[in-house]
Amino acid sequence: MGKSLLIIGAGGHGKVVAEVAAACGYDNISFLDDNSEEAIGKINEMKAFCNQFANAFVGIGNNQFRNKMIKELSEIGYEVPVLLHPTAYVSKTAKISAGTVVEPLAIVNTNSVIGKGCIVSVGAIVDHDTVLEDCVHVNAGAIVKAGAHVEENRKLEAGEVILGY
To answer: Across-strand partners of 80?
Structure first.
């Protein structure tokens, strides 16, 4: 039996998460979503799928909602993994918490600390000695410079640069 993953949210970000998960070796991937025909159920039914899926991940871009849902998944008993796309560079000294996705061609450099539920989008750069608190979204091509600290639930827009030291 392969690795299975239940993704909360089947919209654009959820589909990106599904592709990253597939690249990480998950071969049984399903969605819960209130508004998608692709979903196997509604979000409020996530407790009912614990026996089918040990792992669950929140694929919703809204930072505050993602933060809330990660807590609920953990309380229900799901394992919430870290998803690192194989083409991303992630330093061995970086610390990345549950529910974070690092997308294709992104960089998480030396001694960075990434909180739970973060999104490091395609081509984003998180340089050395940075801290991203929980549920930060570093959008496509954004740069978090060395030594920067980004507060919880913040969304950095595409191409935005956050100064560090």
So the answer is: none
* CA 98/CA 78 separation, integer angstroms: 11
Classify residue 165 by burial, with Cβ atoms within 10 Å: 0-12, 13-18, 19+: exposed
Q: Could you tell me how far CA 120 lies from the centroid of its own chain?
A: 7
Using CA atoms, how far apart are residues 84 and 158, in angstroms rounded to an integer?
A: 20
114-132 pLDDT, tens digit per residue, is: 999 999 999 999 999 999 9
Residue with tokens 């990434």: 114
- Residue 108 phi, psi (nearest 5): -125, 110
- Rounded CA-CA distance 36/41 in Å is 9
- First-to-last alpha carbon distance for the chain, in angstroms, is 48
Q: For residue range 8-53, what is the model confidence (pLDDT) as tens digits? A: 999 999 999 999 999 999 999 999 999 999 999 999 999 999 999 9
Rg (CA), the chain: 15
